[in-house]
Design goal:
By secondary structure, this protein is an alpha+beta fold. It has six helices and 17 strands. The strands form four sheets. Strands 5-4-3-2-1-17 form a six-stranded mixed β-sheet. The radius of gyration is 18 Å and the shape is globular.
C-alpha cells in the first residue's frame, strides 16, 4: 500500500463523557464516509483534561482495557472498517494507572497499546500524580494500514522516542496530544510556544524520514472557579517525511482534517537523506547519562 487516507479528529471536551464519546464516534463515522482508513483521536478524549489539579477523585474516571470505552470504540472501528487510535485513562490495578493509547484493528480487535513514557509535572500539567510511566517501551504497533509508532503528548518533545520508533520500523509517528496556552501569557509568548510545538514534531519527520501526525484538543477548560485554566490550541496537523505541512486544523473548534499520505516517499527521501546510515552509533554512549559534564 503506497498511499493511506488518514483522518485527524480535533475536538473540545466537557465533563459529559457520553457526549464526548458520541462526538468522537460521529467524527469517526464521517471520516470513514470520506474514505479514511486510519482515524486518530486526541489525548484523553473521553473527558476533561483533569491533570490541571491533583484530586484523588479523578482516579474514578480510569477504566480497564478492555473496558466500557474501549469496547465501544472497538465496535465503531469494526462498524466503519477503520484502524482507530484512541487515548484512554487506564486502570491497570488498584493504585496503578497509565495514560494509554489503544490501537484498534478494522475488525475491532486490539492491535496493541502504548503507555505514555514521558510524564510531565508542570503548572497545569500534574500528570505524575496520576500516571505511572509506561513499561511497554517504544515499540511500533503492526496494523493492516502499516506499522504505527504511537507516542503521546509530552513524548513529542523527546527526539529519542521518535528515533527508537523509527529504528524499530515505524512507518509513521502519531501523537495524540493535549496542549494549550495559559490565557494569562502574552500573545507573543503563546505563539512562541505553539511554534515550538509544531517545529519539534516536524523535526522528527525530517530526522527520521517518515510522516508525523499530531492530534490536539481544542477549547478552554477551567482549572478552578477563579477562571484559570488552559486554552487548548488545536492546530492538529500532518507533516510529510521532509517536515512539510500536508494538512492543519485551526486553533479553535472541532475539526476533522483529512490527509492522504504517500508512504512510498519515505524510501525515496531516505535514499537522498540517509540519516540512519550515517549515525555514529559507536559514539553515542553518553546519551545514556542524565548529564555529561
Amino acid at each position: 500500500m503506497n498511499s493511506l487516507k488518514v483522518a485527524l479528529v480535533q475536538q473540545s471536551c466537557t465533563s459529559d463523557t457520553s457526549g464526548n464519546l458520541a462526538k468522537s464516534i460521529a467524527a469517526i463515522r464521517e471520516a470513514s464516509r470520506l474514505g479514511a482508513k486510519l482515524v486518530i483521536l486526541q489525548e484523553l478524549h473521553v473527558g476533561l483534561y483533569f491533570c490541571q489539579h491533583e484530586d484523588t477523585r479523578c482516579f474514578d474516571q480510569a477504566e480497564p482495557i478492555p473496558g466500557p470505552s474501549s469496547n465501544l470504540l472497538a465496535s465503531v472501528a469494526r462498524e466503519c472498517g477503520v484502524v482507530l487510535v484512541a487515548s484512554l485513562f487506564e486502570r491497570r490495578a488498584a493504585g496503578l494507572y497509565h495514560n494509554t493509547a489503544v490501537v484498534f484493528e478494522k475488525d475491532g480487535t486490539i492491535a496493541g497499546t502504548y503507555r505514555k513514557m514521558h510524564i510531565p509535572d508542570d503548572p497545569g500539567f500534574y500528570e505524575k500524580f496520576y500516571f505511572t510511566p509506561g513499561d511497554l517501551g517504544f515499540s511500533p504497533i503492526d496494523t493492516s494500514v502499516g506499522r504505527l509508532g504511537i507516542l503521546v503528548c509530552w513524548d513529542q518533545w523527546f527526539p529519542e522516542g521518535a528515533r527508537l520508533m523509527a529504528l524499530a520500523g515505524a512507518e509513521l509517528l502519531i501523537y495524540p496530544t493535549a496542549i494549550g496556552w495559559d490565557p494569562n501569557d502574552t500573545p507573543e509568548e503563546q505563539e512562541r510556544q505553539r511554534d515550538a510545538w509544531i517545529t519539534i514534531q516536524r523535526s522528527h519527520a525530517v530526522a527520521n524520514g517518515i510522516p508525523v501526525i499530531s492530534v490536539n484538543r481544542a477549547g478552554f477548560e477551567a482549572a478552578d472557579d477563579s477562571g484559570n485554566g488552559i486554552l487548548f490550541w488545536g492546530s492538529s496537523f500532518a507533516a510529510g517525511c521532509q517536515g512539510e505541512i500536508l494538512s492543519q486544523a485551526g486553533t479553535e473548534g472541532d475539526q476533522l482534517c483529512n490527509v492522504e499520505l504517500d508512504l512510498a516517499r519515505s524510501e525515496n527521501v531516505r535514499r537522498i537523506w540517509p540519516f540512519l546510515r550515517d549515525r555514529r552509533i559507536d559514539s553515542y554512549q553518553d546519551l545514556l547519562k542524565r548529564y555529561c559534564r
